[in-house]
Specification:
Number of helices: 4
Oligomer: single chain
Strand content: under 5%
Largest sheet: none
């Protein structure tokens, strides 16, 4: 098959997917949400098992190293884990300003690029097409206000 046939197949599948998404959006959203939910549950379960393994290992090491009772061992392990979590939180807080400055720079660039594209698109339209665009926008807003609320 040539590329035109593949393009027709892809276009047909795209139109079919859009029609299905319009007709039964709840099923489409469920098909998207369920695998993501399963992935999230799996990640949380693996994290819980890993944490329990680390905690149990620390319990055994502290108990045999210092020959303490159960309560003292749990207190020592708790403070070791909280110290580690505190250090990770401290490192995260140190990295946040740099990350937010990076996001702000990207946001400003994206805003300026999209603003330029919007200006170019608006100035390339004829007066009739500008009126059509404004009318379509007003119809969508009225439809949302009267039908969506």
């Amino acid at each position: 098959m040539n590329s035109l046939t593949y393009r027709k197949i892809v276009n047909g599948l795209t139109v079919f997917a859009v029609i299905v998404a319009i007709l039964i959006p709840d099923v489409v959203l469920e098909l998207i949400a369920e695998p993501l939910h399963l992935l999230l549950e799996t990640i949380v379960e693996v994290g819980d098992i890993a944490f329990e393994w680390v905690e149990s290992s620390l319990d055994h090491v502290i108990e045999h190293l210092f020959e303490t009772d159960l309560h003292t061992t749990q207190i020592i392990v708790f403070y070791i884990i909280m110290s580690f979590i505190g250090y990770l939180f401290y490192r995260l807080v140190l990295q946040l300003p740099r990350f937010f400055n990076y996001l702000l720079d990207k946001l400003v660039v994206m805003f300026e690029v999209n603003k330029g594209r919007a200006y170019l698109y608006w100035y390339s339209l004829t007066m009739t097409n500008r009126i059509k665009l404004i009318a379509a926008f007003i119809v969508v807003i009225f439809g949302y206000v009267f039908l969506g609320m």
